[in-house]
Design brief:
175 residues; 37% helix; globular
Length: 175
Amino acid sequence: MPRPPQPDLSRLTPFDAHPAVVGLVPGLPDLVALTAVAWARATGATLYFAYADPMRYAVAERPDGSVRHAGVDQDASNDWEQRAAELEAYLHTTVSPTGVPWEFRYLAGRADRALTHLARAVDAAVIVVGTGTPGLRGGLRRLVNGSVAAHLSHHQHRPVLSVPLRVVDWKDKIE
C-alpha cells in the first residue's frame, strides 16, 4: 500500500494572495474571525468561513468546496438553514465592515475533514481555527471528538493557525 504524501516544501501553498479557510461554530468569539481578517489584510487573501455540521453528511462535494448534504437522522429537526443564516448574518456584522473579501460555506460531517476538503478546493494557504472553545459544549465536543486543530495539524499538509480562546496564565501557577 503506498504511503500518503507527506508534508514538504514543494507542497506549501504560497501565503501571498492565497485564501484562508476559517472554521466557525455558533457562538465563537469574534477573536477568531478578526484574527483571520488580520491574516487576510497582511496577505491580500480572501477568507472562506465554514461551519461543518456534525448532524449532516456530504452527499456530493463540489469543485468550489461547497457540498450537497443530508441529515444523519431524517426524523430530526431540519434547522440547518436557520443556523446557516445566523452564521452568515454574524459574518456580515463582524467581517463585512472590515472590507476584507469573504465567502461562507455550510459543510457537513467531521470538521477536520470538511475544512481540509474546502482548503484543497480553494487552494488555501492556511486554515484558521479557535482552540479551547469556552463553555460546556466546547469541552464536551473536545472530549468526544478531540481537538479540531490537533486533527488538522496531524492529518493534512497546510499550516494551521490556532487562535487561543482560553489560556492558563502559567505565571500565576508558578508563584
